[in-house]
Specification:
Radius of gyration: 25 Å
CATH architecture of the largest domain: 2-Layer Sandwich
Subunit structure: Interacts with YTHDC2, MEIOC, MOV10, CNOT6L, DDX4, UPF1 and PABPC1.
Main location: cytoplasm
Protein name: Probable RNA-binding protein 46
Number of strands: 24
Strand order of the largest sheet: 3-4-6-7-5-10
Largest sheet: 6 strands, antiparallel
CATH class of the largest domain: Alpha Beta
GO molecular function: RNA binding
Keywords: Cytoplasm, Differentiation, Meiosis, Oogenesis, Repeat, RNA-binding, Spermatogenesis
CATH superfamily of the largest domain: RRM (RNA recognition motif) domain
Helix content: 10-25%
Shape: globular
């Protein structure tokens, strides 16, 4: 416990001693009946609460809380979050000094309570001028495994992963776009719990671990973005994957129209996947049941409902060490299969931005624009006064991140090499002066790019990922890599 802390309740700035902190926490425990235990850099309040019977709440009941004042503790935070419902467990991340680390996880007893907490407490002014951020916390149980031999079948990969790691539930393997007898060179491994996935990642990640004589790539898979049930009930577009590249849009339309002629409005195909738009949702759902698993031009297809984009978050990016679609988009496979996507799922919009690669046609960049009328008053502002949601570029996010932490701007160093076919390939090394003497002196991705813009963006994405892991101060507005450590 700190020797002294500032008690900012109701805007006061009284100094609170460690003894007073302890007294306040004891009073909270006595009032609520919850236990409190500190271990592994976090302090757990509850989990389970008094009188709880049965298993813990399911996934989707936990929220992530960021931008918490460092001298604020459970006696102030718990009453605020109890407004949304019954707390199953409150986990406040702690420093050795006794201060909190600026973020926490709150698990409620139901998903509805967690959603209510997000609605009423995101951007809540916890102290004068201090706004917290609240978003869903995803308990990731899935790993991305790259550089897998392409001739390996799902059963072989599953058996091998079960031999080298514990708690494997399933593996998800996608066939190659050009040769359906081969995989794409990567797989997703599902584990029985986050802990099992974390232990497997720890064992496999050093880079020296090999499967079938190949050094594999291992990282967390980006969790699928959950779309609320009410929104999904309005979807009337199907996502169709595993198509042959040669399959035409007209062929897809004919096949999906067989069960009810005239039901399909239009089809949009990109490479080996397509979107089938229906006039009515009922027809889309019926077609999904009929067509899933069917063969078109010799390829067995997978059919699901497409997930729509949440407009307010369009433009945010997955900061996962590689270029990726908007935070609400799922996966769009790049032209080169060596570009490993670490998100499992489907692309919900057309056309979508691809993972640092160019799509078969020129990508359409969606911009929200308004007319500038003559005489409109314009006010000079600093970019650092904006929220991170105003930035689409990872380069801008990184600059913003450094500024918010009172660090000097990132330094970019450009390097090049030549590919076997004579192309100039580029890569950036990024140095963050404020932490250059710390745990990592520089950040450099493991992918080369053909354009300067892509190389810089990729390096910034990679750096943000590792800063997020190491410093846990990442702005909640970027909440894209929320997971338990």
């Amino acid at each position: 416990m700190n020797e002294e802390n500032t008690d900012g309740t109701n805007g006061c700035s009284k100094v609170r001693t460690g003894t007073q902190n302890e007294a306040a926490l004891l009073a909270l425990m006595e009032k609520t009946g919850y236990n409190m235990v500190q271990e592994n850099g976090q302090r757990k309040f509850g989990g389970p609460p008094p009188g709880w019977e049965g298993p813990p709440p399911p996934r989707g009941c936990e929220v992530f809380v960021g931008k918490i004042p460092r001298d604020m503790y459970e006696d102030e935070l718990v009453p605020v979050f109890e407004r949304a419902g019954k707390i199953y467990e409150f986990r406040l991340m702690m420093e050795f000094s006794g201060e909190n680390r600026g973020y926490a996880f709150v698990m409620y007893t139901t998903k509805e309570e967690a959603q209510l907490a997000i609605r009423i407490l995101n951007n809540y002014e916890i102290r004068p001028g201090k706004f917290i951020g609240v978003c869903v916390s995803l308990d990731n149980c899935r790993l991305f495994i790259g550089a897998i031999p392409k001739e390996k079948k799902k059963e072989e990969i599953l058996d091998e992963m079960k031999k080298v790691t514990e708690g494997v539930v399933d593996v998800i393997v996608y066939p190659s776009a050009t040769d359906k007898t081969k995989n794409r060179g990567f797989a997703f491994v599902e584990y029985e719990s986050h802990r099992a996935a974390a232990m497997a990642r720890r064992k496999l990640i050093p880079g020296t671990f090999q499967l079938w004589g190949h050094t594999i790539q291992v990282d967390w898979a980006d969790p699928e973005k959950e779309v609320d049930e009410e929104t999904m009930q309005r979807v009337k577009v199907l996502y169709v994957r595993n198509l042959m590249i040669s399959t035409a849009e007209e062929t897809i339309k004919v096949e999906f129209s067989k069960f009810k002629p005239g039901a399909v409005e239009r089809v949009k195909k990109l490479r080996d996947y397509a979107f089938v738009h229906f006039f009515n949702r009922e027809d889309a759902v019926a077609a999904m049941s009929v067509m899933n698993g069917k063969c078109i031009d010799g390829a067995r297809i997978e059919v699901t409902l497409a997930k729509p984009v949440i407009k307010e978050n369009t433009g945010r990016q997955h900061l996962n060490g590689q270029i990726s679609p908007n935070s609400e988009n799922l996966i769009v496979f790049a032209n080169k299969e060596e570009s490993y996507p670490k998100t499992l799922g489907k692309p919900p919009t057309l056309p979508a931005r691809l993972n640092g690669q160019h799509s078969p046609g020129p990508p359409e960049i969606e911009r929200c624009t308004y007319p500038l009328f003559p005489g409109t008053k314009l006010t000079p502002i600093s970019m650092y006064s904006l929220k991170s949601s105003h930035f689409n570029s990872a380069v801008m996010h990184l600059d913003y991140y450094c500024n918010k932490n009172n660090w000097a701007p990132p330094e970019y160093y450009l390097y090049s090499t030549t590919s076997q076919d004579g192309k100039v390939l580029l890569i950036y090394k990024i140095v963050i002066p404020a932490i250059a003497n710390g745990s990592q002196s520089y950040f450099m991705p493991d992918k080369l790019c053909t354009t300067l813009e892509d190389a810089k963006e990729l390096a910034a994405q990679f750096t943000l990922l590792h800063l997020d892991r190491e410093h846990s101060l990442f702005s909640l507005d970027l909440c894209r890599r929320i997971r338990r450590k």
